Amino acid sequence: MSRHELYADDGTVEREECPRCGDSFLADHGDRQHCGKCGYTEWE
């Protein structure tokens, strides 16, 4: 994945906020999304 795939046409970045923390973003690891701050994980 190139980093250009992360940007929308208007230049913004789509990211999901952590539902537990609320002040950090979830990292996309392909099969899961993970919060590095609190450890919350969503499996796909």
UniProtKB/TrEMBL annotation:
Signal peptide extent: none
SMART domains according to UniProt: Ribosomal_S27
Cofactor binding comment, as recorded: Binds 1 zinc ion per subunit.
Cofactor: Zn(2+)
Top-rank taxon: Archaea
Domain Small ribosomal subunit protein eS31 positions: 3-41
NCBIfam families assigned: PRK00432.1 (NF001669)
Subunit structure: Part of the 30S ribosomal subunit.
Protein name (database record): Small ribosomal subunit protein eS31
